[in-house]
Amino acid sequence: LGAQAHHWRGMSYEAATRPRxxxxxxxxxxxxxxxxxxxxxxxxxxxxEDTADRLAGxx
Length: 59
Hints:
Number of domains: 1
Shape: elongated
Number of helices: 3
Order of helices and strands: HHH
Largest sheet: none
Structural class: mainly alpha
Number of strands: 0
C-alpha cells in the first residue's frame, strides 16, 4: 500500500507540473516495491513496472 501511495503521489506531482517532486515520489515507490515479494501485488493498482515507466518518462 505504501508503494502505491508513493506512486499516486508522484502522479499528482506530475499533474501539478512538479517533476522534481514527482521523481522523488517515484523513487520512494521504487524502493518500497523492492521490499515486497512478487506475489504480493494486487490487480488494478499501480505496479513496480508502472512506477519505473513513469520515472523513466520524467528523464
